[in-house]
């Protein structure tokens, strides 16, 4: 336990401390906001919180509040004669509503975030699914966490992290699959380091093509660093499963009782010997054997998975194989035996739970008529209004519809696709379409907001009240500490205003969305979640005002919440309960309800597996290297907050790219020199760093856009990435772009 604190004033000058939790990574660290004279002036960790035990990372300490008085949007803006000018809320909303009412529901698209609060997501979901009746809703969570949800549905029947952060303190081995925890979740990594420096050091296995601090720690402590070529994760995972089966490091009795699909899995992985995997992935066969031995012989294993798997080729298939490793040994639902299919954003879990993305609220199944009826009854609307006639529109398809013109009303909230989406040259053309009516709701005039027809100034963290759920299902309450600047409003207020002006009604003619406050919205969500895997029915704002967040499911019978799922080895795969009937992991083709029911899952998990296939883009004579994107520990997403922190700007002031020593030598490039990275789609120019990637790989951090560098060279990593996605999760493939590098002579 250690209380981290950063203040702009002396501690005795603080007027009051306000409870919250940090929203600058998916960890969700409990914290308190310092307020003086109506302004946020600092932050400290909450010692009693189960997530961070008082600690905060660099983003939480130095960027959680420092942006609050910098170049904020304070009044609505509307486009007039190609310029954005200030206007009133009535004028801005009247224009939005007029444009909305003259369109059919299917002409509307909503693209949201992993940054809002639960109450706002649920309100947006009801607007889209029961008010307008459009299936065209998704979020930038599609870019970071869609594969987490997809892999959990495919294996366990429903979304929801099986494990707990407390498994770090209880495990004998930690496997990090494509997860550079030292950059993405610094406080969680400090918990791992506590274990490593303690008397009972767990074995560490890192799967990453770069030499990250996680990989260095694995090697320093006698663990394993596997460095597969980007795009070959599925072959690597098939090899690990092959070794478990070949050495009989499995609990066959448990597998037979609690899973389906063992014979198909064993047959699929049989050819993936360490030698074959070494040939495909370019990893030493001995390293693969050692990693498999650690997994197969450790009593308690924790696995975490993130973007190195989620944003790469065969993302869902490879992530499902992580689940399979645990199922083969029965290492689930017990202390130290967790699977954490991680999130990339702080409130991504809520996007999925509440249905503000392509999911149905409460982890309900689009293809289950009873689940549609439940929502229709809950919202008191005709079931035909809820768009369930086809799969929901995922983000990449949504943007294609905008490109084609079938969606010409697009509302973007709290995200910056002009920097974060792949193939940015294409995205800029879409945003600039003359026939597109674009609404952007944000706290800053981002690269995306510059294209908008209407810009709505939104309140940010600390300026509004609401709850959010982190990557381990822990729910925190964030209280309002200060008033938002100028005329900025909370996202909840904005959505409610739109719903009222659109006059959405239920079947009895009453207002469709009756709640007016965040707490009322939370109570409405509790009823929606009741009885579902993500049950919030036992939670209240008052309960969340305690020392720590509380993990769902939380019911009146379990008021303290649930630390780990599946302790009873009963999984939500029953056809009446499951969130999804599954897919073919190669093609993405959906399993029919009839075929799913014929398997008679009866609470058993699925062991799914497929062969490795080559990625959609590979190297060539023109583009001999593979470009892969990732994160810095000092910045979050497109830096709208962290880029306004003096401390973090000094730590990481500008874009860079990384080359291996071998590739830098061949290109005659030295560290500190400027290089251009080019693909068939675009180019990036930046300073070169040398040493961390494996040979053949170029690493580009994706944070650096143009809001503070409008006149400089191209610096957004997504200038070079490809418009391809996983067939099941529909998550874009940011990790496998063929590129070339050349030195810029000055």
Describe the structure.
The structure is a single chain. This protein is of the alpha/beta class. The strands form 6 sheets. Strands 6-5-17-16-15-7-8 form a 7-stranded mixed beta sheet, with helices on both faces. Helix 5 (146-156) crosses helix 15, helix 9 (233-246) runs antiparallel to helix 12 and helix 9 packs across helix 13. A hairpin with an 8-residue loop joins strand 2 (16-21) and strand 3. The mean pLDDT is 96. The protein is built from 26 helices and 27 strands.
Radius of gyration equals: 24 Å
| Portion in beta strands | 15-25%
- The average pLDDT value, as a whole number, equals 96
Widest sheet: strand ordering: 6-5-17-16-15-7-8
Biggest sheet features: 7 strands, mixed
Residue ranges: pLDDT <50 for 5 or more in a row?
none
> Could you tell me how far the N terminus lies from the C terminus, measured between alpha carbons in angstroms?
50 Å
Question: How many β-strands, per DSSP?
Answer: 27
Helical amount among residues, as a percent range? 25-40%
Derived from helix and strand composition plus strand pairing, the structural class reads alpha/beta
Helix count?
26
Instruction: Describe the global form.
Output: globular
Assembly state (oligomeric): single chain
